[in-house]
Specification:
heterotrimer; A mainly alpha (255); B alpha/beta (247); C mainly beta (407); B: 247 residues; alpha/beta; Rossmann fold; six-stranded mixed beta sheet; four-stranded antiparallel beta sheet; 10 strands; C: 407 residues; mainly beta; Pectate Lyase C-like; 10% helix
């Protein structure tokens, strides 16, 4: 397993994409640091990147990587190694590369200009969302044999979780606005990793209390030990189920 | 050595292999033939565990391949098109494959040397020509002294000199008692390298016997023409079948 | 003639004032009884266990080395009704906690020309309680209460039907309302620090012609609430960190003909919440890091918002109607994305401070959880290009390109 991972990782880290993505992250972080005057503003601007760009890139890159590496995967399958390990080494390599780009990309500016807890949590959320969307992308990839189709499915996941789902939430809140909806919306947030990441972050940014009753309710929840535990747990589920499902399909897949 | 038992495989609604049985014995070399889509690649992939059959089992050296991966260390596989991680160097690729078989300590580097690969260990894979990649694949297949060699179109894309080198290597391994399984479109090559002919047609074994027997049955002296005859028969048989079904 | 007598009287008292010295163990009540008009009673350091000390004649009580008067959780400590009664340098602790008779550290009825200075209060129900009095000086006192809930404590500085007074340099913490004024006129409050009170930092009603200058209101339960008043001047105050589901920098309800200038609103859930208010000028205020800088209900009219800074607020302005009868001009908005081609430091295109999302949140508060989502960003962008829902005339036609220097 570690041998496989070592080689997959070596290959992916030397790819042009890894370098470009890291440079892109550095540029984004540097420009945000340059423009914003204080750290909380930095976190808010970075939040948009983490919620939009990171999942998009994770989804597209993971899918492309899966298909570009298909022959290598086949080569590995003909070797005396477990299928599970072949799969895990592939996805872990992708995840490690995406995370490394975030950590290095934001880490360098942070070392230079400083960071606070909220920015660190933001990085963690960026990494978590990378894992979620890499997992979904691999799921899309193992479900189909066609690269274009798989990219299509991955992009649909992305659009769904970043846009359509929230539209649905807004509609629901709107049509049920006569009822107290805090608990319902809390439940709805759990069903979308992007929303969950966004809200955990907003709560950390200390602006939640400025968002009226709903904000206060969410702050209460996410501020409590129980809430932190539950939300991390749900995020963990989001990180693991697509990977686990993709792996189950992969193990029975024909190459 | 390899025994394929009652294998059935469907791709969607298409039956590729149906209740398929086949035995491969050590010390023999097999030419696996059949028209495109006849199921020969599927068969190889099933043996290698890349395609999972819907039914049946394959026993390799007495072990079932189900949920088993260790048996593959006894198989040297040369794929039709070898694609390798772009950023890996040849030397790293060899080391990686050696890493995956930690129990094997002695490597057969004959092909590697005669192809001159040892002089370009630092070249990244994506800079290699198709022919050189093919040489890499061949060198890898033979590197581990595997008892079973599965070669999918081994000579495609190789220059004539390399083809000779490879053929000699195959003969040498065959004579040392290994099981060799070759698919190829170049029939003359098969004639030279194999002693058993298997002809698969529409998921069924149409012919399975020694090359000598094949020549005898078809009444042809040359391997190529014998195979051509075989193909004619198989197509006729198909027609009769369809006619029958209409009756 | 009458005036002359009073003058004589005054001179007389100051001239012949005697000093009565008390040490711990002595009775303050007796001393008050004994004292002649205008006497000075000094208390040396130590603890005095007394309550319900009634003072009805001009007297001055001065502490030396902060003597402590402990009311032992019973009733009021001092009850005052008179003129020229002064307190200085005392520490008063542990009043009763009765909601019925509003137990206080010092309670004034119908008094005039009185002062309370350098007093420290701790664990009192009401702090300083004034009724129907005038010409009061309340200066440099510290009022700390440690109640956990609103009903467990009274107001810090409480004035009812008072006038012509000065409230200055006090530090009020942990009471129900920090400063409470009802029917109070011509009074100045300045340089006070009012923080962590359970309900409002400053709470006034029907209190016309007052000024509030350079006070700091921080982390009060619901901020500052002022109602039913005209001619108020609020200048150079700081309203900050009033966070909570219904917490305001200032809540203005039926306030008219007033001025709110040079204040800083920082980190409040709502910077200013206004309803039924009119003809008030808001100028040179700075709104930063608030949830809503302004919530301007449709019942407000003829107010002017001029030359203020709005930056880093979640929402700049929200309103509940479509009719806007107020004026916005020359403000700086950090969310403004226009340009200034003629370099006159005024943006060439107007700024609409109400975002679509703030309209949505106004109607459906729970929708606030979608803040910063891609959907909302997209909706706001679209609305900016083609305004459809946001009020047409809530608009700043002369947005500044650079913030004012208001520090």
């Amino acid at each position: 397993m570690f041998k496989l991972l070592k080689y997959s990782l070596y290959d992916i880290l030397k790819s042009r994409f890894a370098i470009l993505y890291t440079i892109f992250m550095v540029l984004v972080a540097v420009s945000i640091y340059q423009v914003s005057e204080d750290l909380s503003k930095v976190s808010l601007s970075l939040l948009n990147i983490m919620l939009m760009i990171v999942p998009l890139i994770a989804a597209v890159f993971a899918t492309t990587h899966f298909f570009n590496n298909l022959e290598f995967t086949e080569l590995m399958l003909a070797q005396p190694v477990k299928r599970r390990n072949v799969f895990l080494s592939q996805i872990l390599a992708v995840i490690i590369m995406l995370s490394a780009a975030i950590v290095i990309g934001f880490g360098i500016p942070m070392l230079i200009w400083g960071a606070d807890e909220s920015i660190l949590i933001l990085l963690a959320i960026g990494i978590a969302l990378s894992i979620v969307f890499a997992g979904l992308a691999f799921l899309a990839s193992v479900m189909t044999r066609d690269k274009a189709k798989a990219i299509g499915i991955s992009l649909s996941f992305w659009i769904y979780f970043s846009l359509i789902y929230d539209g649905f939430v807004l509609y629901l809140i709107y049509s049920l606005s006569d009822f107290p909806l805090e608990k319902t919306t809390l439940g709805l947030v759990f069903l979308n990793p992007v929303d969950l990441g966004r809200i955990i972050m907003l709560m950390k940014l200390d602006i939640s209390t400025l968002m009226g009753y709903t904000g206060a309710f969410f702050q209460n929840f996410f501020g409590s030990a129980q809430g932190i535990l539950l939300s991390s747990f749900i995020l963990l589920i989001w990180m693991s189920w697509p990977v686990a499902t993709a792996m189950r399909i992969f193990k029975r897949k024909d190459f | 050595m390899i025994s394929v038992r009652n294998i059935s495989k469907k791709f969607g609604k298409l039956d590729v292999l149906k209740e398929f049985n086949l035995e491969f014995e050590a010390g023999k070399s097999y030419a696996l033939m059949g028209p495109n889509g006849s199921g020969k690649t599927t068969l190889i992939k099933i043996i290698l565990g890349m395609v999972i059959p819907n039914k049946g089992d394959v026993i390799v050296q007495g072990e079932s391949i189900k949920n088993n991966f260790k048996y593959r260390s006894n198989i040297g596989y040369m794929p039709q098109i070898g694609r390798y991680p772009d950023n890996m160097k040849i030397g790293q690729l060899f080391r990686m494959m050696q890493d995956m078989r930690p129990e094997i300590k002695e490597y057969d580097v004959e092909l590697m040397e005669s192809f001159g690969l040892n002089q370009m260990m630092d070249k990244p894979m994506h800079t290699l020509s198709g022919g050189t990649r093919q040489k890499v694949s061949a060198a890898l297949a033979f590197m581990f002294n595997a008892d079973i060699l599965i070669l999918d179109e081994p000579t495609a894309g190789l220059d004539p000199m390399a083809v000779e080198t490879l053929k000699n290597k195959i003969k040498k391994e065959r004579d040392s008692g290994k099981l060799i399984l070759i698919t190829s479109h170049i029939l003359s090559e098969l004639d030279e390298l194999t002693d058993q002919a298997i002809y698969i047609f529409e998921g069924d074994i149409f012919f399975n016997d020694s090359v000598a027997m094949l020549k005898e049955t078809t009444g042809e002296e040359r391997f190529t023409t014998a195979i051509a005859r075989l193909m004619e028969w198989s197509l006729k048989k198909k027609q009769t079948k369809t006619e029958l079904s209409h009756v | 003639m009458k005036a002359l007598i009073i003058l004589f009287f005054l001179l007389n008292t100051t001239a012949w004032a005697e000093t009565i010295r008390l040490k711990p163990g002595d009775s303050i009540k007796d001393a008050v009884e004994r004292a002649a008009i205008g006497d000075i009673i000094t208390l040396s350091a130590g603890e005095y266990l007394e309550h319900d000390i009634i003072i009805r004649k001009p007297l001055t009580l001065i502490g030396e080395g902060m003597p402590v008067i402990n009311g032992r959780d019973q009733g009021d400590v001092f009850i005052v009704a008179g003129e020229n009664i002064h307190f200085n340098g005392l520490r008063i602790i542990n009043t009763g906690r009765s909601n019925i008779d509003d137990s206080a550290a010092i309670k004034f009825y119908d008094s005039k020309n009185c002062s309370v200075e350098n007093i420290e209060l701790e664990n009192t129900f009401f702090g300083l309680h004034f009724s129907n009095s005038s010409n009061l000086t309340i200066k440099n006192n510290k009022l700390f209460s440690e109640a956990e809930r609103e009903y467990q404590t009274g107001n810090g500085i409480h004035l009812w039907k008072c006038k012509d007074s000065l409230i200055e340099g006090n530090d009020v913490k942990g009471h129900r309302d920090g400063i409470y004024l009802e029917f109070v006129t011509n009074t100045i409050s300045q340089n006070n620090i009012i923080h962590e009170n359970k309900r409002y930092g400053l709470h006034f009603m029907f209190s016309h012609n007052n000024s509030y200058i350079k006070n700091t209101f921080r982390k009060n339960g619901a901020g500052v609430a002022v109602m039913y008043t005209r001619n108020v001047i609020m200048k150079d105050n700081i309203f900050e960190e009033n966070e909570g589901a219904s917490s305001y920098g200032i809540l203005l309800k039926d306030i008219s003909d007033s001025e709110v200038t040079g204040n800083i609103f920082r980190k409040n859930t709502i910077g200013i919440y206004m309803e039924g208010s009119s003809r008030t000028i808001f100028k040179n205020n700075s709104f930063t890091n608030n949830g809503w800088a302004l919530k301007l209900m449709a019942s407000c009219d003829n107010n002017t918002f001029e030359a203020n800074n709005f930056s880093a607020n979640t929402f700049d302005i929200s309103t509940n109607g479509s009719v806007v009868l107020n004026t916005l001009k020359d403000n700086y908005w950090d969310k403004y994305e226009g340009y200034d081609l003629n370099k006159d430091k005024v943006g060439d295109i107007p700024y609409r401070p109400i975002s679509l999302f703030s309209v949505i949140v106004e109607k459906i508060p729970s929708a606030v959880i979608l803040w910063r989502s891609f959907l909302v960003t997209l909706l706001d962008r679209m609305e900016k290009i083609i305004p459809a829902i946001t009020p047409e005339n809530m608009i700043d036609n002369s947005p500044k390109m650079k913030p004012y220097d208001l520090s």
